[in-house]
Every structure is written in C-alpha cells, then in structure tokens.
Design a protein that fits this description.
Layout lengths: L6 H25 L6 H18 L2 H13 L7 H6 L5 H8 L1 H7 L6 E8 L4 E4 L12 H4 L7 E2 L4 E2 L6 E11 L2 E11 L2
C-alpha cells in the first residue's frame, strides 16, 4: 500500500518540476535570439516611448502602489499561479480590474502583451494570463526596477503568447519613487 505524500511535499515537487520544465523549454529559445532588423527596432523604439507614457497613467501607478503595499495577490505563489485555470477569480481579477482593462485596451497587432508588476515583481494586471506570477529573477524586471528602460537583445518567442517578439520594460514611478514595472511584448512581424 502506497502512502500519499503530504500536500506541502507535493507542492514543492510540483514547483521543482515546473521550474525544471520551464528552464528546459526556454533553454533553446534563450540560445536562439533572432537579430532585430532596423524596421523592427524602429517599432520597438516607438513602443518604448509609448510604454513610458503608459507607465505614468494614474490607473497604472495606483494599481502598482496598491499591490506593492498589499504584497501582491493574497496567498499567491508561483506554484499556485501555475495551477490556476484562466477563468479562476484570481486570474480574472488581473484581467478585469481597472488596470487590467487599461492594458487590455493597449493590445493590438504591434503589441501582443502588456503586464503591470508591483515593486516586488508580482503580477498586478495583464491582458492575458501570463505564465509567471513573479519575475524578480528576470531581466525584464531586474533592469526596469532600478529606473532604467530595458529591451531584449533579440527577437524570441514570447513565453506567454508564443509569438515572435521583443520584450521591453520601463519603471512605473510615483514622483521619483519607483513603484513597479510595466513591460510589453512588441510583435516582430
């Protein structure tokens, strides 16, 4: 007779499995950047300016500040996020909140994903269910949270949308205080 593992042990095993599968799945993509052509770079430059404007929107600033103060979605972890269905209340709140509706309105043929993160890297709002709840370990967050704009060095499939894209990010500021990061996936088509 087999004994079931405790829930905490199963969650740790699931988290390790997700991390391993993500790193294995992303390894070929990380090694296979496609160079950014001048027309794509022109589009990226245009959207870096737009992203900075979007980051200054009061809806974005309020949402990032509120999430930072609350510590993100109550009780949310990377493992819990991966287990959630797209229709779960937690996921739907990130899409249908005031900030979620704001970023959803920005989605179009040139921008296929826009995401707001709090100062801890936690998801605040997005126009789709993103793969990662927290991105403190990713370049898209690490550079922008220091106050500098960031751009991916080449074209690569977006982890969430699976579309060839260039990732960009800028800080969200309340005056001079950095309260989060907004990042977008610019289509490479």
């Amino acid at each position: 007779m087999q004994t079931a593992l405790p829930l905490a042990t199963r969650r740790v095993a699931l988290a390790c499995s997700v991390a391993l599968l993500t790193s294995v799945a992303m390894a070929p993509a990380l090694a296979q950047f496609t160079p950014i052509t001048p027309p794509i770079q022109a589009k990226v430059d245009k959207y870096k300016l737009e992203l900075a404007k979007w980051a200054a929107n009061p809806v974005v600033v309020r949402a990032a500040k509120a999430s930072s103060a609350a510590g993100g979605i109550a009780g949310m972890t990377a493992v819990k996020w991966t287990e959630l269905d797209d229709k779960s209340p937690e996921v739907q709140r990130t899409i249908t909140s005031e900030a979620g509706k704001f970023v959803d309105a920005l989605d179009g043929p040139d921008v296929n994903k826009v995401v707001i993160r709090d100062k801890h890297g936690n998801l605040v709002a997005a126009n789709t269910k993103v793969v990662l709840y927290n991105v403190t370990h990713r370049p898209v967050f690490k550079t922008a949270i220091t106050g500098a704009a960031w751009q991916q060095e080449g074209v690569q499939k977006d982890v969430t949308t699976q579309l060839p894209s260039v990732q960009i990010a800028v800080p969200i500021k309340d005056g001079s205080e950095i309260v989060g990061v907004i990042h977008a996936s610019v289509s490479a088509k």
